[in-house]
Design goal:
iron-sulfur, iron, 4 strands, binds iron/sulfur cluster, alpha+beta, Fe-S_cluster_ET, transport, two-stranded antiparallel sheet
Length: 63
Amino acid sequence: MTIEVTRSTCVGAGQCVLVAEDLFDQDDEGLVVLIEEDPGEDRVDSARRAASLCPARAIQVRE
Ligand code: SF4
């Protein structure tokens, strides 16, 4: 699985961090920072949940 984030569309809602703080963080401006680009398969559910909750659709999960 790989995760991609599009910081240019991130609106800083922070849902991704609430769902998966080991995968995502936010910078000083609130924009998403990807911590783990290629996490283990055990994190698939969390990554997908974060992607589905992101109001800006700024998170892509590829398997
Ligand atoms: S949930 Fe989406 S909009 Fe909010 S911080 Fe994360 S990537 Fe950005």
